[in-house]
């Protein structure tokens, strides 16, 4: 597969919005027991329900460790009624398999799909990521998709899919905590806002970047935006809000909402900002987990939303049902899943249709 580098913003590739039509969704079948210590048993069954819902509208491409790992996945999927013609398996050993972050950014133009092979370094926190780094080249080779290596200041740019969200028309939203913190989980040392805005323009077709402050409490990634604020159409975002003043999320989430209310899109129009509640804090073994309704995934056939046995589950599902008129909104029980420090959006990655 030919590898190319883009050196300026003249590229006509752009990153499509998540609600646009997918060719497929990528997931990595769970295998690392350290991601869900003491809770691994139910996790494949949660994944099977996710796959069952997604494959109603698109192919699900599943990365597995080995032939035996594939056989285990098939057995679980068959148990919940997933037809084997709705899934495709790819054998590649991985460290974790959180596809949103280790997978490529799929971009397109009028004639082809390409992938941006951003570097993945396990959120600048963990040492075991060398296998996950091979995912983008692997997909490029297997599907014969053009691979673009993003370079800035002579460095291979590190970027995770969960750190950005886009409206498909040229506006991207992210957080200062994740990308600009000079000391904690530093992805690209020395990069400032101007550097990132140039990278987003060059490789993702972005015209406007909206910067929020901090991410939610309990977020292992140090500020991913997909637990915080998401585009649901080209001019509307949902932002999670905490109503309890004593909660550590209260102030930072309110500050982000205030920023959003003064922001404008790439076309100069103001954002439409919709509030959505947070669930009550989810604590396990003394650790606060990053439980958030914003970590939903928009598939071709449904919007899958994490739920937490919480009084606000119904409210969050209702808000999203009012916003998404073209596909159903479905809750996925995620109390066990969030022990892995991520839920639905973190583990999925869409491949857009041409």
Q: Short description, anyone?
A:
By secondary structure, the protein is of the alpha/beta class.
Descriptive report:
- The protein has 354 residues and is α/β, with parallel strands linked by helices.
- It has one domain: L-arginine/glycine Amidinotransferase, Chain A, CATH 3.75.10.10.
- It contains 10 helices and 21 strands.
- It has helices at 43-54, 67-79, 99-102, 122-125, 135-143, 176-180, 193-204, 250-261, 313-323, 344-347, and strands spanning 3-4, 22-28, 59-64, 87-91, 105-108, 113-116, 146-148, 151-152, 155-156, 165-166, 171-175, 208-212, 229-233, 236-241, 272-277, 283-284, 287-288, 297-298, 303-307, 329-333, 348-352.
- It has a 4-stranded mixed β-sheet with strand order 1-7-6-5, covered by helices on one side. Strands 4-3-2-21 form a 4-stranded mixed β-sheet.
- It starts with a strand and ends with a strand.
CATH topology: L-arginine/glycine Amidinotransferase, Chain A
Oligomer: single chain
How far is it from the N-terminal to the C-terminal residue, by CA? 19 Å
Domain module tally? 1
Task: State the total count of DSSP E strands.
Answer: 21
Stretches where pLDDT is under 50 for at least 5 consecutive residues are none
Rounded to the nearest angstrom, the radius of gyration is 19 Å
Summarize the helices and strands and which ones pair or pack:
Blueprint: E1 3-4, E2 22-28, H1 43-54, E3 59-64, H2 67-79, E4 87-91, H3 99-102, E5 105-108, E6 113-116, H4 122-125, H5 135-143, E7 146-148, E8 151-152, E9 155-156, E10 165-166, E11 171-175, H6 176-180, H7 193-204, E12 208-212, E13 229-233, E14 236-241, H8 250-261, E15 272-277, E16 283-284, E17 287-288, E18 297-298, E19 303-307, H9 313-323, E20 329-333, H10 344-347, E21 348-352
């Amino acid at each position: 597969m030919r590898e190319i580098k883009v050196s300026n913003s003249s590229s006509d590739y752009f990153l499509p919005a998540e609600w646009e039509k997918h060719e497929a969704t990528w997931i990595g079948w769970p295998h690392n027991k350290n991601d869900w210590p003491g809770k691994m048993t139910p996790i494949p069954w949660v994944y099977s329900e996710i796959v069952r819902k997604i494959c109603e509208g698109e192919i699900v491409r599943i990365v597995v460790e080995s032939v035996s790992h594939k056989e285990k996945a098939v057995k679980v999927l068959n148990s919940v009624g997933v037809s084997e013609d709705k899934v495709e398996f790819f054998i590649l050993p991985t460290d974790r398999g959180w596809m949103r972050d280790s997978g490529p950014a799929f971009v397109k133009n009028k004639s082809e799909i390409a992938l941006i092979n951003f570097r993945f370094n396990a959120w600048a926190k963990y040492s075991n990521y060398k296998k996950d780094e091979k995912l983008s080249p692997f997909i490029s080779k297997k599907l014969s998709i053009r691979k673009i290596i993003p370079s800035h200041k002579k460095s291979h740019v590190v970027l995770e899919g969960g750190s950005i969200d886009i409206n498909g028309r040229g506006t991207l939203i992210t957080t200062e905590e994740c990308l600009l913190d000079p000391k904690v989980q530093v992805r690209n040392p020395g990069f400032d806002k101007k550097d990132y805005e140039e990278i987003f323009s060059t490789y993702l077709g972005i015209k406007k970047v909206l910067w929020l402050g901090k991410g939610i409490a309990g977020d292992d990634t140090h500020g991913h935006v997909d637990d915080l604020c998401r585009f649901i159409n080209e001019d509307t975002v949902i932002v999670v809000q905490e109503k309890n003043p004593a909660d550590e999320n209260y102030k930072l989430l309110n500050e982000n909402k205030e920023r959003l209310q003064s922001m404008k899109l790439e076309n100069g129009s103001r954002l439409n900002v919709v509030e959505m509640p947070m669930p009550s804090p989810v604590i396990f073994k003394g650790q606060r987990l990053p439980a958030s309704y914003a970590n939903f995934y928009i598939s071709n056939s449904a919007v899958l939303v994490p739920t937490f046995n919480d009084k606000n589950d119904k409210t969050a599902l209702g808000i999203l049902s009012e916003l998404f008129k073209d596909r159903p909104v479905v809750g996925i029980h995620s109390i066990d899943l969030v022990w892995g420090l991520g839920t639905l959006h973190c583990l999925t990655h869409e491949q857009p249709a041409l």
